[in-house]
Amino acid sequence: MELTEQTVGDAAIRRFDYEDATTFAADLGVDGTVDVVGDTAIVVTDDDQYDISVPDGETVTAFINNGVLTIEVKG
């Protein structure tokens, strides 16, 4: 399954392609934490955990700010 087809809870993940990176974003509506381990972003909100497959890239950065999950893949 590709990242563009996944959801985090009820929030759809949207894909934005730029010249030097691809960004994925989902409005979770709640704050939480996210860690990237290998090719998986692990998102934890309240009592829920979601594992999201991340495309290959040289650098993967993920964070949650004001309830919005952002995953940026460069390379």
Give a verbal description of the structure.
- The protein is mostly beta strands.
- It is 0% helix and 61% strand.
- The protein has strands at residues 7-8, 11-12, 14-17, 21-27, 33-37, 40-45, 48-53, 59-65, 68-74.
- Strands 3-4-9-8 form a four-stranded antiparallel β-sheet, with no helix packed on it. A three-stranded antiparallel β-sheet has the order 5-6-7, with no helix packed on it. It has a two-stranded antiparallel sheet with strand order 1-2.
Structural key phrases:
75 residues; single chain; 3-stranded antiparallel beta sheet; 9 strands; 4-stranded antiparallel beta sheet
Break the fold down into its secondary structure elements and pairings:
Blueprint: E1 7-8, E2 11-12, E3 14-17, E4 21-27, E5 33-37, E6 40-45, E7 48-53, E8 59-65, E9 68-74
Antiparallel strand pairs: 1-2, 3-4, 4-9, 5-6, 6-7, 8-9
Outline of this structure?
With 75 residues, this protein is mostly beta strands.
Could you give a short account of the major beta sheet? Answer: 4 strands, antiparallel
Which parts are unreliable, with pLDDT below 50 for 5 consecutive residues or more? Answer: none
Q: How is the largest sheet built, in terms of strand order? A: 3-4-9-8
Class based on secondary structure composition and strand pairing: mainly beta
